[in-house]
Design brief:
By secondary structure, this protein is an alpha/beta fold. The chain folds into 4 domains: 180 residues, HUPs (Rossmann fold), CATH 3.40.50.620; 88 residues, Glutamyl-trna Synthetase, Domain 2 (Glutamyl-tRNA Synthetase, domain 2); 60 residues, no CATH class; 97 residues, Arc Repressor Mutant, subunit A (Orthogonal Bundle). Helix content is 47%, strand content 11%. The strands form 5 sheets. A 4-stranded mixed beta sheet has the order 1-2-3-4. A 3-stranded antiparallel beta sheet has the order 5-6-9. It has a 3-stranded mixed beta sheet with strand order 13-12-14, with no helix packed on it. Strand 7 and strand 8 form a beta hairpin. The longest helix has 16 residues. It is elongated.
Length: 561
């Protein structure tokens, strides 16, 4: 077989050589040890939580080493592409701190554009490049064409593959496919000329040289030393429309773009032999690979399952709607990625997660378990350390999109709103009332007349006359100008006058001698003023809502009793 003649017959229009292409993509000038990583999603829908894992790892490795992190859009499967998905994923990733040095970006009109010297960064725009390298492989006898007539295409499309496999012995099927693959390799130049003259479509397949009974050693940066089978499958490199498969595009693009480390899910491990052979055939240096374990969840029976697209928490856009601050999600991801992150964070509570020295060796070899409770704990801690002004702005921005009515209340009384959010902030043990921005309204809504309602009822073990007398005496003695100590002394005096213990030690020593304690007296007042059994510091609450509103609520409860 004259392989160069075969290549020229298949691609007469391709005159560039791989060397010409290489000259357009020179080696990057970077410091020694700098890593070039990428995130290369397909625009087929929303950004999955699992996608935040490899993108975060890639971003950390590149930026900690003084390297480059870029975004490549792998849009070669037009049938699965969702309109606007590429633009959406760029916005979503930016929200969660994943910023790219180069690659596909959004221009001022919100459209995909290129930033950098190694584009185009959308694979659908790189077609001629792949054909140059495909022609090279054909010319070297490492790849070959496989023609399909229109009749054969129609026949293939009519076959129900699932039923065919279901009714076939798998071993016999494997042997049949192997025989079919080997038969495809037998053709002549004359056969090719006849097919081309008849305009029959063709794909380009690699000529596999592996022995399925042999295995080769490989070092994965996460999994460690593993062994994988040699590739013995003549898989497709270019489809009949000239569009590359993931395997081929991945090898060509990562080489030309100078990728040093490839971070992807462990579901890609079975494809590794194909990629090793491709890099060898093309004469490219093989990048280092990291195959990250899958994100798991517990089902209703306590069994571990893969976090699927349908599970709550899978869609990154859900976190925005639920009101989680991006910092919390990012920090939570770090706790899953590196086992020593929490220890580091305890020693450096005021430092951002980006200061953490991310370490590949600390990554889990087994699956990470997704846990909303852990995320909530992380979120509470982060929000508790924010200033009241910062929380106000973030709650307001979230509310404008998801609760416009509440946003109007916040904007109508900004100083009061900030005062509410300032309660218990600062110090070594700040309050942790908010887990998400969605929690703000239930937490602080009672301050606003529009949302005030009595939610909790008084416990039935207390006499209503004691509750009413407490409220009457409080309204008679309340003075907005009192400091906290004077205010509380008056509450204790009410307790003593009604047979409740003003001294908690005395109450705990002999509870049977009292109707209750000063804590119960405070609760009677609290429910009347806030509508809840639990609330922030009651004295501070009254200082914020003011004298008139405090007494109005007290008197309203008296009339109900």
């Amino acid at each position: 077989m004259d392989y160069q003649l075969l290549a020229d017959l298949l691609y007469p229009e391709i005159t560039e050589t791989p060397e010409d292409i290489e000259a357009r993509y020179p080696r990057r000038e970077l410091p020694e040890g700098a890593q070039v990583t990428r995130f290369a999603p397909s625009p087929t829908g929303f950004v999955h939580f699992g996608g935040l894992f490899p993108s975060t790892v890639a971003e950390r490795l590149a930026h900690q080493s003084g390297g480059v992190f870029y975004l490549r859009i792998e849009d070669t499967d037009a049938k699965r592409e969702v309109e606007g998905a590429a633009e959406g994923l760029i916005k979503t990733l930016a929200t969660y701190g994943v910023h790219f040095d180069e690659g596909a970006i959004l221009d001022e009109n919100g459209k995909i554009a290129d930033k950098g010297n190694y584009g185009p960064y959308k694979q659908s725009q790189r077609g001629p490049l792949y054909r140059v390298f495909a022609k090279k492989l054909v010319s070297e006898g490492k790849a070959y064409p496989c023609f399909t007539t229109e009749e054969e295409l129609d026949e293939l499309q009519s076959v129900n593959k699932k039923e065919e496999i279901k009714n076939t012995d798998w071993q016999a099927e494997a042997e049949s496919r192997r025989a079919e693959m080997l038969a495809r390799r037998n053709f002549t130049i004359e056969d090719v000329k006849e097919h081309l003259a008849a305009n029959h479509p063709f794909v380009i397949r690699i000529l596999a040289n592996g022995d399925p009974d042999k295995r080769m050693k490989f070092t994965d940066l996460v999994k460690g030393a593993i062994d994988v089978p040699e590739n013995d499958e003549d898989f497709v490199l270019l489809k009949s429309d000239g569009i590359p498969t993931y395997h081929f595009a991945h090898a060509v693009d990562d080489h030309l773009m100078g990728t040093t480390h490839i971070i992807r899910g462990e579901e890609w491990l079975p494809s590794l032999p194909k990629h090793i052979q491709l890099f060898n055939y093309l004469g490219f240096k093989l990048p280092k690979y990291m195959h990250i374990s899958q994100i798991m969840r517990l089902d209703e029976n306590g069994n571990k399952k893969k976090l699927s697209k349908r599970d709550m928490g899978a869609n990154m856009d859900d976190y925005t709607e639920m009101g989680y601050c991006p910092e919390a999600v990012c920090e939570y991801v770090m706790t899953l990625l590196n086992s020593n992150y929490e220890e580091w964070h305890m020693q450096n509570p005021d430092k951002p997660y980006t200061d953490f020295p991310f370490n590949i060796k600390k990554m889990s070899v087994s699956g990470c378990l997704f846990d909303f409770e852990k995320l909530n704990d992380v979120s509470k801690n982060i929000i508790s350390r924010m200033s009241a002004d910062d929380v106000y702005e973030k709650v307001l921005n979230w509310s404008k999109k998801f609760d416009p009515e509440f946003a109007c209340e916040l904007e109508g009384a900004p100083e009061m709103s900030k005062s509410i959010l300032a309660i218990g902030r600062g110090g070594k043990k700040p309050r942790k009332d908010l887990t998400t921005w969605r929690d703000a309204k239930p937490y602080m809504g009672f301050f606003y007349d529009k949302y005030f309602t009595v939610i909790d009822e008084y416990p039935e073990n207390f006499d209503k006359s004691d509750i009413k007398n407490t409220l009457v005496k409080f309204s008679e003695t309340y003075d907005y100008a009192d400091d906290m100590n004077t205010w509380f002394d008056k509450v204790k005096a009410i307790a003593d006058s009604l047979g409740f213990a003003s001294d908690m030690k005395a109450y705990k020593a002999d509870p049977a001698s009292f109707k209750g304690s000063v804590a119960d007296i405070s609760m009677f007042i609290r429910v009347a003023v806030t509508g809840k059994m639990n609330s922030p510091d009651l004295y501070t609450v009254m200082q914020i809502i003011g004298k008139d509103k405090t007494l109005d609520r007290i008197n309203s409860m008296i009339s109900k009793l």
